[in-house]
Amino acid sequence: MVTIRLPGTALRLALAATAALSLAACAHKPPAYPTTAPVAPPQAAPEPPRAPTAAPRVEPVSQGALPGSEKDFVINVGDRVYFDFDSYSVRGDATPLLEAQAGWLKRYPAVQVRVEGNCDERGTREYNLALGARRANAVREYLVSHGVEAARISTVSFGKEKPFDVGSGDAADSHNRNARTSVIAGARMP
Q: Which domains does the chain show, CATH number per domain?
């Protein structure tokens, strides 16, 4: 093997020249693109002025229920009022709902309803059937006193036989002490 010895300055010069040649070989020129002015998009012809129009009429939201249908009654009015323990007196918090039911029933005079009285699990079967009947009749009398024809409203008591809430305890009991107004005929079909 032959070794070539270069003086210090020559060695540095040789290294610098090699580095310069390496960098020059890697240099990259960007391709030349033709330079043209950007073209503006075509302008749309101006629209002729429109005559003023009335604001669109906004209909109330009915939650997808056909007005006068059973679904409309349940969703937009409400079908159930609640009672205190061992009571059939209509509570104050039930009166707005019963007034809404009376208004809906007067608006749809062909509709017939059944008021179903219900009780919680406490008490005998016989006692709860009687209490459920009193609750159903209390709701019926309220609706009649607010202008709904008595012939359109029937009543039934389920006592504790058809619980709304199948759980047990105070919360379930309070849900099951109710009267449900059920549409049985004359409602619009979806």
A: 70-185 (3.30.1330.60)
